[in-house]
Design brief:
Elements lengths: L2 E5 L2 E4 L4 E8 L7 E7 L5 E7 L5 E3 L7 E6 L4 E6 L8 E8 L5 E2 L10 E3 L3 E6 L1
Parallel strand pairs: 2-12
Antiparallel strand pairs: 1-3, 3-8, 4-5, 4-9, 5-6, 5-10, 7-8, 9-11, 9-12
């Protein structure tokens, strides 16, 4: 079975940093994208960052210059380093892996077997 397990969420003051990690098992990184979505209360689920199997990276405009996605093939881990955090970054963050990760989803998690897989999410709270 495919499993994605996130860790690293928590509470921090504005301007602080957090590092999210996601261990992926039962899934091949070949020809697949890895990414991080987030969903705030009452909001749609947004892809904030992703990395293709070729190593190209994407960042949503809201996090460019502040967030960094990285992959460790040896440990099957994808991480998201979040710096200069803002209160509007507060959300549940979901690790995702799949053939295609769309920029917006109505709700998360949104696993579709054979297409994309999600973890259960980790909470990030940024206070002003």
């Amino acid at each position: 079975d495919v499993q994605l397990v996130e860790s690293g969420g928590g509470s921090v003051q504005a301007g602080g940093s957090l590092r999210l990690s996601c261990v992926v098992s039962g899934f091949s990184f070949d020809n697949s994208d890895l990414g991080w979505y987030r969903q705030g209360p009452g909001r749609e689920c947004v892809l904030v960052s992703s990395m293709s199997s070729e190593g190209s990276k994407m960042y949503d405009d809201s996090v460019k210059g502040r967030f960094t996605i990285a992959q460790d093939i040896d440990t099957n881990t994808v991480s998201l380093q979040m710096d200069s955090l803002k209160p509007e970054d507060s959300a549940v963050y979901y690790c995702a892996a799949g053939l295609y990760l769309g920029p917006h989803l109505t709700d998360c998690p949104s696993t579709v077997k054979g297409l994309r897989y999600f973890g259960q999410g980790t909470h990030v709270s940024v206070s002003a």
